[in-house]
Design a protein that fits this description.
With about 450 residues, this protein is an alpha/beta fold. It contains 14 helices and 17 strands. The longest helix is centred in the C-terminal third of the chain and has 14 residues.
């Protein structure tokens, strides 16, 4: 059955000389509010994104506002130029800027299309749009994704994200996997390179595609040509989802703050800042540094706006050990007046406790633990963000052999400072996720 909106779309496509391929049709005609496209290299993602916006324009009930958002202005250029061409062909282009930094398109009906750069977050705090195109979206950081996701709320706007995987860890591949089976409002799609028949007339059997498959590694071919993530095996927390466990939750003044700490020096020093709000564990901020001593970390904490509400602290049991200097726990007490509780935690028992907190709370039907997207240290350890020290992918993993099979019964003890801080705090406050063999009942009193 051809609906009115489908007929309008076909009319528009005919006027601009566009005919979607079979691989493009499910994407271009998607009725989902949030669409993510993982495209192979040169798959025509920018063209498709511009045509998706074109299909949404007739649905407006008055002058609309659309955004083209990218990591920088230059990455919006392809979509911007396609839209200028298309609206000019339709005879509705009023005027457009020659530059994209920023760029602006005005249509005869008053609709405006603007380019936005993640390098200038202030531009994302202006009047809410009716729809957002994420250009080269895989290169946006997690904070920007949540910022534009939040800007969709006021007008129940749609969002179309298109990008190429550059590795299979990070928020973009996680979101692709989470949306793959779809929901009422979300869907992800793969758009392989060979779907661009202008470049690869032979499709999947095109000689150039066959050559790439023979010469490239399986992971590279899946990610960069097929648009399918190939996440490494051995993630300690595969349950973690960037779209589910990450929320823009801010510090609430006058609510108690907990500091959960994993001290270190060369590897990293993590302070996870926790508030328990409406029975939900909220990681509202963090201090994640390396090559700094505890005195310097304490100074940083005491300068934070949440410091006045810090009531409780938990630290690794090693934080009471003296290593040619005062123990970290003693520094927190002497310098800041904060007593740090501590107890020995077994690795696998601690892992199970954190896994239990990543599950849905059956009472509230939501995650038991959420993390602010600005907490890039702990998010990098879950695989949802690049490492804040060097921008590389460094995630908490089990030991694996060359074939990716898990070896041993304990994870590698690295890239886990924020995660260990969370575990220490969870065990200290909630105990283990299983019944322990105890002859006595522990009672904890905070000083």
């Amino acid at each position: 059955m051809i609906t009115g909106s489908s007929m309008a779309t076909e009319f528009l496509f005919d006027k601009v000389g566009f005919s979607p391929t079979e691989q493009q049709k499910p994407i271009i005609y998607s009725d989902k509010r949030f669409v993510l496209v993982a495209g192979g290299e040169q798959a025509g993602k920018s063209m498709l994104a511009s045509k998706f916006l074109l299909t949404k324009w007739p649905e407006l009930e008055g002058p609309g506002l659309f955004w083209l958002v990218a990591a920088d202005y230059e990455r919006t250029r392809a979509e911007f130029e396609y839209l200028v061409q298309d609206f000019a062909a339709l005879g509705v282009l009023k005027k457009s800027s020659k530059r994209v930094d920023p760029g602006r398109i005005e249509l005869a009906d008053g609709t405006v299309i603007e380019t936005k750069s993640a390098k200038d977050p202030r531009t994302l705090a202006m009047r809410a749009p009716d729809g957002i195109i994420g250009c080269e979206a895989s290169q946006l950081d997690l904070e920007t994704f949540y910022r534009i996701r939040g800007r969709c709320a006021p007008k129940a706007a749609w969002m179309f994200l298109a990008g190429t995987f550059e590795g299979s860890l990070g928020w973009y591949p996680q979101l692709f996997l989470a949306w793959q089976h779809g929901s009422d409002i979300e869907q992800s799609y793969s758009l392989p390179s060979f779907s661009n028949y202008h470049l690869y007339p032979g499709g999947e059997d095109d000689p150039e595609i066959q050559r790439l498959q023979e010469d490239a590694s399986d992971d590279f071919f899946k990610e960069r040509i097929m648009g399918i993530p190939s996440p490494p095996r051995g993630l300690v927390f595969p349950e973690f989802r960037a779209d589910y466990h990450v929320r823009e939750i801010e510090y609430v003044p006058e609510e108690p703050v907990h500091l959960w700490v994993d001290p270190g020096y060369a590897g990293g020093y993590a302070v996870e800042v926790i508030q328990i709000l409406d029975e939900q564990i909220c990681v509202v901020d963090e201090i994640y540094e390396k090559t700094l001593i505890t005195e310097e970390i304490v100074d940083m904490a005491m300068d934070k706006p949440w410091w006045k509400d810090v009531h409780f602290g938990v630290i690794d049991v090693a934080g009471y050990q003296h290593q040619a200097m005062s123990a970290p726990a003693e520094v927190w007490l002497d310098k800041a007046g904060l007593f740090m509780d501590s107890e020995k935690v077994k690795i696998n028992d601690g892992t199970e406790r954190l896994k239990s907190m990543l599950k849905v709370d059956p009472k509230h039907h939501r995650p038991k633990l959420i993390i602010n997207p600005k907490c890039k240290g702990v998010l990098s350890e879950f695989g949802a963000a690049p490492n804040p020290f060097d921008g590389q992918t460094k995630v908490y993993k089990w030991k694996t052999d060359r074939d990716g099979n898990i070896v041993g019964n304990q994870p590698e003890d690295k890239y886990n400072h924020g995660i260990k801080a969370l575990i220490y705090g969870l065990i200290n406050r909630f105990g283990y996720s299983h019944i322990e063999n105890r002859n006595t009942i522990r009672v904890k009193r905070w000083a």
